Amino acid sequence: MKEKVVVGMSGGVDSSVAAYLLKEQGYDVIGVTMQIWQDEDVFMQSQEGGCCGLSAVEDARRVAERLEIPYYVMNFKEDFHKYVIDYFVSEYEKARTPNPCIACNRYVKWESLLHRSLEIGADYIATGHYARIEQLANGRYAIANSVTAAKDQTYALYNLTQEQLSHTLMPVGDYTKDQIREIAAKIGLPVAKKKDSQEICFVPDQDYASFIQNETGIVAPKGNFVNTKGEILGTHEGITHYTVGQRRGLGLPMGHRVFVLEIRPETNEVVVGENEEVFAKDVVKTYVEFIHEIYDAGCRVLQFDDCVWGGMVNPKLACGLTGRTGDALEDYKKRLLEFNNEVVAQSPKDLEINTHVCRGNYHSTFFSSGAYDSVADLLFGEENVNAYYLEYDDERSGGFKPLAKVSGDKKVVLGLITTKRPELEDKEKIYLDQQKLLSEKLQEYVDINRKLNDKYDESLANIKELKCTVESKEKENLCAALRQTQRVTQYIWDCK
User: Fold this and answer.
1) Which residues of 192-212 are buried (b: 16+ CB within 10 A; e: fewer)?
2) Whole-angstrom Cα distance, residue 275 to residue 269?
């Protein structure tokens, strides 16, 4: 006896070919269209693109006739309104941007449709999603990517249960979109060239605000557009008209592009800002999530490798990297500071966070030169890290005077040995020279705790015992690299 499968047919080419493929594989196929939106007028129902309107029903019926499979329309209007429309409206009123397709998949297609299909004796339901289902070695089921990244829809199926996956088939996931259209054309399906549906099926005109107003009977009140500093920039039409990330349709004469950064229903404000501010918010969120992950894994000391500040120490390079000069460049540096401090502020309080101002090390070459003077006030005075790891290996790093800006009880670690030259240094001479350098030049700007830390003392003792036989220039350079990795020339002191 053939296994029976109910195919959810939207009238599009993907679900139509899914029905064909399953019939070819030997399944007893039944076509079903879910009637979920009954109150639209006849004209709206007849328009192209909707997945469950009148046009979808007619297209699906014609495909079923061509495939010679039974076809039915099932009414899921009540479930759709409860789990999809009500959810959609509620999320917009809370200033969030919902994905109704995910809710529809979870509660309508894979609960209501699956339940009813099993009741009529079906073994499976099937859809035209570009995704695959795999059974793992432990017996559990998992959503897998389709063969085409361009159309992959696994993101909309993440919340399906094991029970639902065990009764689901997705034959389209093994094909590209072009291959699906070729199959449809080859077997003469009337929807072979039908355009893909892009809009939300119950808001075909994309006027979400009007739809929400009609559903609730409430007109969203106007409010203020504000920038990140709270300054009023203009008047918005109601928060349901906007989503985070939106750029078009704001009606703000700013003279440059701005985006919606945040929507505040409690104050009825829409916060807008430049693209960099949008990007910064996303990056901060990503950094913070990662930091908490490694903290939970046991990390208690974290060091940033901050090459951005490394670029800012060189005025010419800073202009080239940012496209800014003068006050605009200084504002950019302040934004960098705010970015880093925001990450630190959202990190665990007992996590030690240090930063290395990196000037690059690409095949033992650097990308930036310049003294720390132009960034000292912000970087040393206001960045909320525990310690700075700074390159001071030659004249390109400038003098020690900027270190007088180091605030609070922050530590400073100087890198006084270079990795940019292959020559082998004399360890005893370096030790003496650096002591002299620190005592004579640095003392003018900071109070130095010149007692070497325990780790340094231990490393130095080990290095004195190191014997390196040099038989060639190559081995000499190798020995130098080995010594450099020991970090034995790093001095730590308190800047008070």
Assistant:
1) bebeebeebbbbbeeebbebb
2) 19
71 with 150, same domain: the answer is: yes
Q: Do 274 and 257 touch, CB atoms closer than 8 A?
A: yes
For residue 343, the model assigns a pLDDT of 95
Q: In what order do the strands lie in the sheet with 71-75?
A: 71-75, 28-35, 4-8, 124-126, 168-169
* Angle (CA) 115 34 102, round 5°: 75
How many domains, the chain?
Answer: 3
Split at pLDDT 50, 70, 90, the class of 72 is very high
Residues 245 and 325 in one domain: no
Alpha-carbon distances, residue 460 vs 342, 411, 433, 465 (angstroms): 38, 21, 15, 9
Q: Which residues of 24-44 are buried (b: 16+ CB within 10 A; e: fewer)?
A: eeebbbbbbbbbbbeebeeeb
- What is the pLDDT at residue 472? 46
**Residue 235, CA atoms < 13 Å, CB-side half-sphere:** 4
The reply to whether 131 falls in a domain is yes
CA distance 282 to 276: 10
Q: Which amino acid is at 460?
A: L
* Residue 424 pLDDT greater than 80, yes or no: no
Inside any domain, residue 204:
no
The candidate with the shortest Cα–Cα distance to 19, out of 10, 33, 9, is 9
Say what the pLDDT of residue 364 is: 61
Tens of pLDDT, residue by residue over 175-224, are 999 999 999 999 999 999 888 776 677 777 778 888 888 888 888 899 99
Residue range of the domain that includes 146: 4-186
Is there a domain that residue 161 lies in? yes
Three-class secondary structure assignment of 433-494: HHHHHHHHHHCCCCCCCCCCCHHHHHHHHHHHCCCCCCCCHHHHHHHHHHHHHCCCCCEEEE
Q: Is the pTM of this model over 0.70?
A: no
Question: Does one domain contain both 167 and 224?
Answer: no
Residues with catalytic function: 104, 201
Q: Rounded CA gap, 126 and 5, in Å?
A: 7
**pLDDT(93) > 70:** yes
pLDDT band at residue 303 under the 50/70/90 scheme: very high
